[in-house]
Amino acid sequence: MTIHQPIKPITPRQSTAPVSEAPMTSTAGKALAALRISTGFLFLWAFLDKTFGLNYATPSAKAWIHGGSPTNGFLKGVAVGPFESTAHAIAGTWWADWIFMLGLLGIGVALMAGIAMRIAAVSGVVMLAGMWLATYPLARFDSTGAATSSTDPFVDEHLTEALVLIVLAATCAGTTWGLGRMWARLPLVKAHRWAI
Fold this sequence. Notes:
Helix content is 52%, strand content 0%. Helix 1 packs across helix 6 (157-170) and helix 5 (117-135) packs antiparallel against helix 6 (157-170). It is built from 8 helices and no strands. Mean pLDDT is 89; it is low at 9-17. The protein has one domain (27-195). The chain is globular, with a radius of gyration of 22 Å. The protein has helices at 27-52, 72-76, 84-90, 94-113, 117-135, 157-170, 180-184, 187-191.
């Protein structure tokens, strides 16, 4: 008669560093770092172009520093969805301009540096959700009856970028090629882990 010993489950080796401080040196970690930096550049470039009118999306004459409004063109152009009148009402207001521009700058810098990833992700998701609602890809026709040219009834670049921000925060992508580990060791961040 043979006695069978119970088989111990194989468990992965655990790192002693907290998840927020553990570097991802694998190919996946480097790919996430590259995604983080490029996504951060999208936000930071939008801030720079709207502020200084670098003649990409914003001509020099409409730059924020020359009295232009960063929100006016986009929000006044909303012609679809349940928030059309709300978008028109807040377009060009000083507080909408400041919130939008500080959001672009803060999210861009945080992502490029690899710090405050959770704060950047939440802020970015809120901003992108607002922009998704303003473009309302579910609508096939705008309020004038013209085709919206929506190519997908749900997913657009705003939703995709929001998901990217969530993935970057969830995977601690700031620890590779970024200042995430140093940021996580700050006393304020240690006391408030939501700030990682």
